[in-house]
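Q: I have 278 residues here and want to know how they pack in 3D. Can you give me a structure?
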Amino acid sequence: MEQTASPTKADLLARWLLPLAALIVLGVWFYIAPPGILGKADSIGYAVCHRIDERSFHIFGRQLPLCARCTGEFYAAGLTLIILAILSPKRSGMPGWKLGAPLLFFLFAFALDGSNSYLYLLKQTSSGVFENIPNIYVPNNTLRLFTGSGMGIALASILYPAFNSAVWKNYNPASALDWKKLGVIVGVVLVIDLLILTEHPAVLYPIAILSALGTLSLLVIVFSMVWLLMMRLENTFDSLAQMWMPFLAGMTLALLLITLIDLLRLRLTGTWGGFPLG
């Protein structure tokens, strides 16, 4: 008769302490974050984004939780994870060289536009030698949105198979991404980007929430994988239901990081708004 290993003291301790820690961290984050759904989304964006007003989209004059570039990056990453989870369940194969080419292009475009945009910011806010910094072109929120979206697709396309190869007992070694799926993802993201550029509140409000959730999802996935490595639980799970403890640990660590960065930034700047340009 097959015997199952009894849980260790460390396992039992984690089962009790982890939910308690999660409640404490969630309570602290909920308390310090601005009120309302968008306020909570703001606090997530505040931890990862400069939130400069001029570089963000607005709903009725209210700045979105993330700048245009980060909005594109994190909503596209969250959406890509959802699409891959539906179309490529438990697939752990990384994109090959051919599929890696468009992903590298997305990365290059993100780096190029981000660098050019940063140099333009220096020119705007500094004097002396910085006033003569050359720019390839005048940056704008449209390019920030598109290059951010490409980066989000690339990030999720790498993170998703890495997660599957670390978690599942019986993962599928086939590539999680192929040309057809990449085409679907790029097509959906392109349509959404064009809708975002209309700046209609009916589009921007759900995008504000989705971009914040996308940010949180990436952090939770990364920290869940860290938890698995720490607890030596790699490749031991058959279903998402069994993953409640790693996900809870990942959520706790993600919210703890967000809370600490929020408190530090709030202490330094005294505002939930973007970094001052002056």
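Q: Anything worth noting?
A: The helical segments are 9-32, 37-46, 68-87, 97-125, 141-167, 179-196, 201-231, 244-269. Residues 46-264 form one domain.
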